[in-house]
């Protein structure tokens, strides 16, 4: 995969979820037809909840009556909102991408986990994966509590990926109480801010870019800034 056929995009203002869903689906279809470039899209959403294919109605409480959407991805309930960095990846998984062999969905998910873990390490955080618990987890050294700092949810249509990852930088943590995050009641959710780290969004974005190539192989290009919809 060459740089000329890969885009890095960024939205500076919160993106409405229906627009993001429609745009991802459209681009995924065009990538499959060889009419669009593969890409990573960095963004935020306004406060909302999304349900995956395994979401249970009883795991949604939503005391603030935020909008809810059927995401169509794998997984259960997820919160998105300001202060959370989302990376949507639209890749042709019929091709190899760095350490990811073609047509290997498990390897792709492991690649996403590795990308997040490498990014967290930039800031001194030890991210870990747990069997039967999707996402990336950290142990707060001050409390000993193991909590999720990043969620992963993917959808693949005819071997083109969409959706991706979300990393909690400084979201309103109270809003996670409106759901059972990812259907896991026994463990909580954390963020960079909750862990005592003062990291800006540009710093996190730079770390995501810097840690992309060792996992996915291609050299990131400058961001294309998208207009708000």
Automatic annotation (TrEMBL):
It comes from the Bacteria. It catalyses: octanoyl-[ACP] + L-lysyl-[protein] = N(6)-octanoyl-L-lysyl-[protein] + holo-[ACP] + H(+). Gene3D superfamilies: Bira Bifunctional Protein, Domain 2. Its EC number is 2.3.1.181. Residues 34-220 form the BPL/LPL catalytic domain. Its main location: cytoplasm. The active site is at 182 (acyl-thioester intermediate). Pfam families: LplA-B_cat (PF21948). GO terms for molecular function: ligase activity; lipoyl(octanoyl) transferase activity. The keyword Ligase applies. Keywords: Acyltransferase, Cytoplasm, Ligase, Transferase. InterPro entries: aa-tRNA-synth_II/BPL/LPL (IPR045864), BPL_LPL_catalytic (IPR004143), Octanoyltransferase (IPR000544), Octanoyltransferase_CS (IPR020605). It is found in: Cytoplasm. Pathway: Protein modification; protein lipoylation via endogenous pathway; protein N(6)-(lipoyl)lysine from octanoyl-[acyl-carrier-protein]: step 1/2. The record marks 148 as: Lowers pKa of active site Cys. It is an enzyme of class 2 (transferase). GO terms for biological process: protein lipoylation. Substrate binds at residues 73-80, 151-153, 164-166. One of its GO terms (cellular component) is cytoplasm. Catalyzes the transfer of endogenously produced octanoic acid from octanoyl-acyl-carrier-protein onto the lipoyl domains of lipoate-dependent enzymes. Lipoyl-ACP can also act as a substrate although octanoyl-ACP is likely to be the physiological substrate. In the reaction, the free carboxyl group of octanoic acid is attached via an amide linkage to the epsilon-amino group of a specific lysine residue of lipoyl domains of lipoate-dependent enzymes. This is Octanoyltransferase.
